[in-house]
# Entry
Amino acid sequence: MTTKIGITGAAGRMGRTLIEAIAASSDDLQLAAAIEHPESSLLGADAGELAGLGKNGVVVVASLDAVISNIDVLIDFTVPAATIANVQACAEQGIGIVIGTTGFTAEQQAIIDTAAMKTAICKASNFSTGVNVCFKLLDMAARVLGDDVDIEVYEAHHRHKVDAPSGTALSMGQVVADALDRDLDKVAVYGREGQTGARERETIGFATVRAGDIVGDHTVTFAAEGERVEITHKASSRMSFGRGAVRAAGWLKAQNAGLYDMQDVLGLK
Ligand code: NAP
# Structure
């Protein structure tokens, strides 16, 4: 049966990629609505043309409310405040929502957790299949290498990214911390400068680079005396995220209320 998908932030970098990913997916996934914010200059544009495809007849509109009854699942890659409003609207209507936005506060995350009691939500800091395989590898590496190594997370993204470290870097740190039974809030070190003193073994360091058009690089280093293991993922196109999010939307339609992630979609749990 067809899954009718709506996209918020349709004119954004990921929005356009998602329109393309739906067009390239199987026939049972269909773009049914494209939404931008009320001040967008692209309201009224054809969503297919926005994504560099031919016309698809789906016109960009200013309000989720106007189209929510026409969709089965919403995919939202926007900004935290917009996502929170959209999550609440979806929860009220029992519409599933795939959340790609990153950079939520603890209060905003609590709103998402509450909404997940009413509707199915799939939220992931990174929807690429490769990154989700890396999460599995990181868990294994951390358990085996344990307290004998220093662990550092490095990430690089394009110059337009507004939050740091990336949600993916934080998820990688969380996977490692969970495997080692450490509290990430206590052991994370975000950047270093000046007289930092020697490194404490328990800490997990994060380093951020923002430059040019880098789509997304992540490396976790496990460094011991005499050897080091590095697990690296490099995204060269946003389609890796787009394909994953569209796959998640198709999967989510059949799920009960609850909070899921890409590991659930891929059956990696
Ligand atoms: P972007 O190009 O800035 O796109 C965001 C879009 O949302 C823009 O078109 C923006 O419009 C629009 N928007 C803002 N407020 C809105 C509202 N109230 N209603 C509807 N649309 C609204 O950013 P991006 O690179 O696509 O990234 C978006 C988010 O996805 C970021 O948080 C990023 O970190 C995250 N992301 C996640 C993954 C993942 O796999 N989970 C992958 C890539 C990116 P204006 O530009 O006109 O304000």
In short: The chain has two domains: 3-123+238-265, 129-235.
